[in-house]
Amino acid sequence: MINENRLLNEFIELVSVPCPSKDERAEAELIMAKLRELGLEPVMDKANEKTGGTCGNVWAYVKGTVPDAPTLLFEAHMDSVAPTTGTKVVRKDGVLYSDGTTTLGGDDKVGVAGMLEAVHALKEDGVAHGDIQLLFTISEEIGCLGVVNLDKSWIKANYGYCMDIGGSMGEITYAAPKLYDIYVTVKGKAAHAGIAPEEGVNALMLAAEALSKLPAYGRIDEETTFNIGVFNAGIGTNIVCPEAKFVIDMRSLNVPKLEKLKDDTMALIKETVEAGKGQVEFEVVEGCPAVELSKDHPCIELAKRSAERLGFKVELKTTGGCSDGNYLCGYGLPCGLLATGMSNVHTTEEYLKESDLYDTARWIYETVKVAAEK
Question: What is the pTM of this model?
Fold first, then answer.
């Protein structure tokens, strides 16, 4: 059985440790110590050699007692959005907050703590289970760098569960979008704005004209979004702007639709800029692959059955966000996202219901049990 008092204390300890992206060393060492206390032999990989961080991803393997049960991988990330250092947890009416000076860190320590407690309880109860992989990743908050740079051959599971999404207990996310970031550089020609403006080509105005011709932005449709999040241009008010840069974030659950949107957008911008005697350069960065599981995939069915046994209201959902789960799915591991209740994440108003913390661990525990049944 899940020990709520132990779990709560462990969560409070985990969020108190500094864990900014690329500097999760203290958090990783704490987690590895707790894994050793459970009789496991955690291993740190070398993903940080590519990310420039202070530590790699932490892996642990729990040997099962049911040989023919599917191997399950549970994943959560160790970093939190700043400010994270010195988090002090405030309990009020069954809800956990920070003291307002930092984020709470429930994103994603609820997943970390839930995984640790579930394994603790499984061992205490002597529950029959299959093999379990635990993965604690680095630098998720700045582009999922830990999972991007892990060695895919280390993944030994049949199904994966990413414990890193908000929502009510029982919500299972089975699809998430593919993402492109398109870095656009519009080049014009500098000239003195007061003496010879006609000799220049204003890159800022060309970029603005191209953006004004976009047929739509924001929510394109129910499965596609499009955002201009960054725009930089100009070196002085008396200079015809020689260069303008902006970044497009586009994502969709429908990959062919996204590819067409990417190609059409770049063609429109190029046509507009060149018509104004400017030049344009594009750098297309694939942010993450899509999560594409059917609603009746065994990975999703297993999470549904365990949620139903716990009395959760099951709801299958899609999301417009990206997570480590996108990459795990892209590596060939069927991976769903299980709701953990985290709310107002990435702000100092972040909070987490205590009941959701406890139920996150219960959901992991029950999923492992159900997977081992004949």
Answer: 0.91
